[in-house]
Amino acid sequence: xxxxxxxxxxxxxxxxxxxxxxxxxxxxxxxxxxxxxxxxxxxxxxxxxxxxxxxxxxxxxxxxxxxxxxxxxxxxxxxxxxxxxxxxxxxxxxxxxxxxxxxxxxxxxxxxxxxxxxxxxx
Length: 122
Known about the structure:
Oligomer: single chain
Distance between the termini: 41 Å
Radius of gyration: 15 Å
Largest sheet: 5 strands, antiparallel
Number of strands: 5
Number of helices: 1
Number of domains: 1
Helix content: 10-25%
């Protein structure tokens, strides 16, 4: 099975650096949802080299600035799924940058804790 994140078409790359790139999520959970993806194929973020980790952090900042200009969201969720049990469906490491907007969900409290709905509130 081929990897949908390896060899990205140039027209899908929104921003890039030497080690990784950002593209729009094909199934966005909110307007502007971006994926930050290392060029090198490896399954999860715990396998990233130090250079790749730094590059992803830099790209995350650039992606936020881009979305601030394009969409002016009210907040963000940043998420990484590692392994099938955590919901990872593409086994190529990637980070979700999800813009959030006031009123996009009834009660956003708990944020990423919503991955396990029973543990969302505290």
